[in-house]
Amino acid sequence: MNTTAHLLLAAALLTAPAAFAHGPAFDCYLEGAGGVKCEAGFTDGSSAAGRTIQVRDSRGKVLLEGPVAADGSYRFQAPSGDYAVTFLGGDGHDATLQSFDITQ
Question: Keywords in UniProt for this one (predicted)?
Fold first, then answer.
């Protein structure tokens, strides 16, 4: 193999994992009357339906837990006090938002 072929092969091997990589896409926002809507998916466009979302208090206690719906959403009534919402995307693809970061 010539030098150019070696360089092309090395570049292809180094960039191949990035082409197949995906990460979590997760956001939550306030809806009327104390409701929160979260939207979850993956950066490659794949569905997160059935994956788990947890709502925890400031001490880490799970207050709510449920699956992402077929449309990629999860809705809940905001608990009182500070809380965190975590999308458990699997394979290290978790994402967490703090209640103070959730806006309209």
Answer: Signal
What domains appear along the chain, each with residue ranges and CATH number?
20-101 (2.60.40.1930)
pTM: 0.79
- The angle subtended at Cα 71 by Cα 54 and Cα 63, nearest 5°, is 15
Distance between CA atoms of residues 96 and 60, nearest Å: 12
Summarised one tens digit per residue, pLDDT across range 24-45 is 999 999 998 999 999 999 999 9
83 secondary structure, DSSP code? E
Percentages helix, strand, coil for the chain, rounded to the nearest 5? 20, 45, 35
Please check whether residue 40 is in contact with residue 103, taking contact to mean a CB–CB distance below 8 angstroms: no
